[in-house]
Amino acid sequence: MSYDRMEGTDMSSSQEAAIRLRFSRADGSLGRLGTEKLVERALAFSAASSGAAILFVIAFVFMKAYPLLARDGLAWLARADWDGAVMEAWWNPDFWRFGALPLLVGTFATTTGALMVAVPLGVGCAIILSEVAPPGLGRILATAVRLLSGVPSVIFGLVGLTVVVPFVQKTFITEELGLRYVDVPLDGQSLLAGSLVLAFMIIPFVVAVSADAMRSVPESYRFGGLALGMTKWRTIAKLVIPPALPGIVAGIVLATARGIGEAIAMAMVAGGLANIPHLDRGFVAFLEPVRTLASAIVENGEGMSVLQVESALFSLGATLLVVSVVTSILARAAFSRLRTKTGLATERAI
Amino acid sequence: MARLSFAHVRSRFWMAACWVSAAVVLAVCAGIVLAMAARGIGALEPSFFTTDPQPSFEESLAGGIRAPLAGSVILAVSGILAVFLPSLGAAIYLAEYMDEQKLGTRAIRLGLEVLAGVPSVVFGFWGLAVFSQPIFAFLSDSAGGDATSAFGRSFLVGALVMAVHILPFVVKVMEEAIRAVPRALREAGYALGLTKWRMIKRVVLPSAAPGIVTAIVLGLGLIVGDTAIVWLTVGGTMTMSGADAWWLPHNWLPVLKGTGSTLTTFIFYSSPAGEGNAPGKAYGAAFVLLALVVALNAFVAWIGRQRSIKAQ
Amino acid sequence: MNDVAEVVLPAVPTAGTASVDVACEPWAVQAAGVSSWYGSNQVLKDVDICIPQRRITALIGPSGCGKSTFLRCVNRMNDLIRGFRMQGTVSVHGEDINGPQVDVTLLRRTVGMVFQHPNPFPMSVYDNIALAVREHKPSINRDELDGIVEQSLKDAHLWDEVKDRLSGSALGLSGGQQQRLCIARALAVKPEVLMLDEPCASLDPIATGKIEELLLQLRERYTIIIVTHNLAQARRISDEMAFFLMGEMLEQGPTQQVLAAPQREETAAYLDGSYG
Ligand SMILES: Nc1ncnc2c1ncn2[C@@H]1O[C@H](COP(=O)(O)OP(=O)(O)O)[C@@H](O)[C@H]1O
Ligand SMILES: [Mg+2]
Fold first, then answer.
1. CA angle A39, B114, A154 (to 5 degrees)
2. ipTM for this prediction
3. A217 in Cβ contact with A240 (< 8 Å)
4. Does the structure show a pLDDT above 90 at B113?
5. What is the pTM of this model?
6. Is position C204 within any domain?
7. Among residues C77, C179, C181, which one has the least CA distance to residue C131?
8. Is the domain defined by B78-311 classed in CATH 1.10.3720.10?
């Protein structure tokens, strides 16, 4: 062992004449470089296999969706017959006329309804969290938001089903209403219940991302506004929110994505029927059951043994994939806009 | 008394509206916790944890959550085991070696980001279809012995699908933790004559360890909280089909290859939406699940605090 | 795998053998015609410098003039920076640091470095020192390692202050202690040249005094290059002095001589300006 140079004293005499090599490898050996290359390959391999897994998921979903897409193009998205079609496909192997419009409408309606509640509440809450709350209250609020984001969706479903649904039924659905509209069951499992439950599932995204965006606005902006004699609210509205806006938008986009993809809770509270709410019935439309794209995959999952149903469900999955690609691109764009607006540079370590 | 200007009235109105929003969020959060406590605590007798679910019309006879609780643990542990090495490897590669200019690496990054947003139900359905292929028959025991397809549902299948589902998220958190290691520490490592990998192994990874643990714990939370993947890929059986005595090592493989339930699917099944219809039991299980999630969250927060104390 | 061990390293010139050694290799570090660029920004311009063995050489000059860059050229830390380029030759004990067979990790063990801000690893005091030692000699046993840790801490004048808290986090030490830990860490891999880049810039006068005292003792065994903005410090501890300005090395000589009678106007102006 020559590690300890003290021990190597006896070696130096024979090499006195030549330059003693301290850090060159005269034998041309690679030292540890061999291991280095090996490790790098192994790491590259795990990164590449993650990439391969991604490709595989996407490719597989589209492959399974292909039979329906090849026969029907996108027409199945515009047709309005889901439950009946799934039934028919069970016994008729040539049946391919699916109509996912009710699911599309159901997804759009629950998510929009949820956003109408979640965005104002969430942004308001974010303002309190980042601009107003004293540290103690801020911590409580932040904990509550984190807790809310961690509550499993099945618990939202359970509470929704045992609290929100009965509430909707008792408050809005009279016997007379049930008799008047016999074509759809009005039992509280409804677009309204779905939207309310979904709203609180997605609020944490709005709050967390918006509050982060507001915190990234330089402190000097606020001082500037207050120094000009603006009220607290005007300072927030005119000087803090505008530069933070892309971040707020990003939060809303992420919340939307989450809402669109929620399956279990919507299966539990939104009603088990692929129904397009009848807008001509006014408020009653909100009390009608709907089904979302994501919850259809759970609720009709047992149909997977039927080729057409499987293909139709994978077409729903492909739709969700496309939507999540679009939303993640939008969120990315919003975040990079936020960075340019608040002057935050992205830092890279070496 | 000074007259309030319009600006002040407006300011107060909007600030009040913000306070109301915050109060609503707090109230809903508290409401959920209280609902769990009020309706769930009643179910929490010792026997609730030591008996398996029983199909019964009579709620009092519907049994406990022994198997689902064990199922959650089994699925979480095996899912994390499956995801740990690939995600750590990918995170190290992305953070330390990746040439941002290369198309392949950019594609991986974009792909991970996109996949992170895909709803779990899509993964569940994907997994069910993939692992029903005959070549994957060794992952799941089919009771029927059907030769043309595998059963496609088992803890192993569920764990693998979970691994793919949480991979992008886990990689992201790990990568951030690795990137957050200060440049000064890296330089110190290099200046001592460490090679790149040695420097990463000895300096970067130990410094990033709290973040890596955080990624794992958050991943556990995702697995424990997910319903759709479990419902679709672990099978709808409330007890374990593999073996009852799941804790005995020689039963591990049969259990992993068999079906079962987790707390989430137990809640789904026992809720009025499922066939079990034992809401009291569902609330009991929900209370346990919530406590588990809160504990995981608290652990993550604790790690974060430790880190910020150290950083001072 | 420890090929490192296969390379036969020479004996450290101890007091007895010093005369022979100095005679055949008078310079520990020699730079000839060194120019360097970060991207298209030229930072060093044709720098020639000779650093004598077992002396303290102070590099002085206004900030941004390339002192750190020069140090980072000597142990090739700049290799880590994308877009960095260097021309000219640097040799350490006559061995070209850019030679085709150079193992950079061995070079960096020969030429240790201490940075401006103390940067202990976020682990125990013991592990901070043991880390690199273990890496370079995986088979080392615990007793041997304990010995190296203790010796390094003693050499860095830190042993008495930390001997009871070796397993405590290094981040719990004071700034001055952290910097001495970083010195101990560098010494533990047995370098021959020790480079310190403004090691006292973030320390108070007392901690600074301790480090100066320490360097004066290390001077007997190591070649020390120190970058400093503190001319009083340079006067107190250095034997040689080199003045950098805008990427050029304008003047080098014994410290007393440079301070008393600078050869170049620019040096005189810098010294005057700094004295106020
Ligand atoms: N990593 C780097 N990338 C680009 N330019 C750098 C880098 N490090 C230093 N420079 C530039 O090189 C010049 C010299 O810097 P430096 O050697 O740190 O000066 P000194 O240590 O004398 O204060 C400065 O103009 C600085 O901006
Ligand atoms: Mg410098």
1. 110
2. 0.90
3. yes
4. no
5. 0.87
6. yes
7. C181
8. yes
